[in-house]
Backbone:
């Protein structure tokens, strides 16, 4: 990729933050800085990189998608993270949300059920810069009891109901953001 292409993508990332994220009311300055720092285009398949900063979810690998930037920002802001928090992420995907969480929290435990996605996220050079990410291959709807309790849990794929086992793994005062529904999804914020 040329220097000019990189500059263009940096400009598009900056415009994404101003026009899609801040414009819709996301105010957390540390979150906005993380979104500015993390190059989303390095987490999408090459053939979709030109759309990396558009206001949409994009096709990813293994029949999955990478969430719309605003949704990533909204779900993250709802967690109210700080540098002392331990976070559980259900659904690593390519690791974009994971990198954002790693910027804001002390520790991030991220679970992915698809082995290929698990490997793709771990191999990402951006992800490899973080020493506070713990990768788990497995079924995230069981949570990760080994490291519980968590100050925050974020679920990136919608189950048909809220798994009780996840609420049990929240620390007192902990927050969970989860989309729920089969055909229509509702985003829930639960506080324990």
Residues:
């Amino acid at each position: 990729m040329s220097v000019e292409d990189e500059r263009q993508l940096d400009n598009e990332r900056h415009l994404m933050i101003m026009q899609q994220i801040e414009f819709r009311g996301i105010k957390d300055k540390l979150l906005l800085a993380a979104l500015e720092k993390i190059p989303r285009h390095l987490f999408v398949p090459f053939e979709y990189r030109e759309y990396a900063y558009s206001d949409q979810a994009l096709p990813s690998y293994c029949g999955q998608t990478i969430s719309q930037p605003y949704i990533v920002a909204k779900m993250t802001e709802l967690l109210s993270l700080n540098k002392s928090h331990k976070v559980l992420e259900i659904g690593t995907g390519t690791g974009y949300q994971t990198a954002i969480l790693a910027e804001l929290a002390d520790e991030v435990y991220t679970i992915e059920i698809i082995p290929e996605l698990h490997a793709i996220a771990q191999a990402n050079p951006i992800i490899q810069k973080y020493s506070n990410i713990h990768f788990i291959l497995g079924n995230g709807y069981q949570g990760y009891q080994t490291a519980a309790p968590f100050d925050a849990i974020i679920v990136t794929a919608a189950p048909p109901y809220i798994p009780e086992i996840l609420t049990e793994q929240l620390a007192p005062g902990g927050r969970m953001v989860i989309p729920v529904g089969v055909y229509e999804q509702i985003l829930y914020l639960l506080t324990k």
Summary: Residues 179 and 187 are 4 Å apart (CA to CA). The beta strands are 58-59, 65-66, 86-90, 107-112, 133-137, 150-155, 170-180, 186-191. The chain has a mean pLDDT of 95. The chain has six helices and eight strands.
